[in-house]
Amino acid sequence: MLPDFVVIGGMKCGSTSLLRYLNYHPDIILPRNIKNLEFFDEKENWNKGLNWYESFFPKEKNKGQVFGEVSTEYTKHPDTNNVAKNLAKTIPNAKLIYVIRHPYKRLISHYIHQVGAGLEQRKINTILRNIDNMYVRYSLYGYQLEQYLDFFSPSKILVLTSEELRRDKDKALSRIFRFIGVDESFKVGNNVSLNTSAERKKWNSIGRLIRRSSRNYNAYCYYKNKYPRSMRIADLLLCSAVNVDSLSKESKEKISPLFIEDIKKIEDTFGLDLSGWSFDEV
């Protein structure tokens, strides 16, 4: 069977924490231990066919259950190919969830992620001399949603902020549960906390080998989600701290107008109030 909802991102906006929260709800079924199936992207797994995708979900659904997937790769336009079109064609009635975060913070967190994975050696302010880069593009949430609004009405897309999840987890999750049609009164409790451990870590050579293997990395993520305290020891063995420069005044002056204009699109389309996102300080 196919999923009823898809969390389409965003990357470094709390999707891993949301995955943990959703897994606790008894009526929500997600692919076990797997994030980022990347099926709808023609550059990734689209050519594997629908049977491949359906194999990650149960063949039958119990009363009241909903199926879903979490894939931050689905809001990385234009570095993906026809994601929204393929998703709409495959699951026309899908409900979409998009978690967003202050653009500066998402951008910096993404940069740290790349440095930690050994994929980025440049300084952040050097990169931002040219604003046409993935760190900026993936932080333009209105721009990312444009591809989906060609196929889905705004009522089919729930946009919420990672700040909401952090400030009042139960209230934010209640909104999500109501949106996807499961018991909104269910409480996750304090079993799961918002993921912050990956913010400033750099993988050593062994850690990078684990990351390169999807099976090993999915296993690492599974045990990290299930036994977060115990896995801190593994993090100490596999990772070291990452130190990065702050955004310069020149960088902020260059990218802030883009973000402010983009946020206005989100507010107008989805009736959000993001006035709490200051662009003076981060």
UniProtKB/TrEMBL annotation:
Keyword Transferase tagged: yes
Source superkingdom: Bacteria
Keyword Transferase: yes
GO terms for MF: sulfotransferase activity
Keywords: Glycoprotein, Transferase
Record-annotated Sulfotransferase domain positions: 3-202
Protein name: Sulfotransferase
UniProt organism field: Aestuariirhabdus litorea
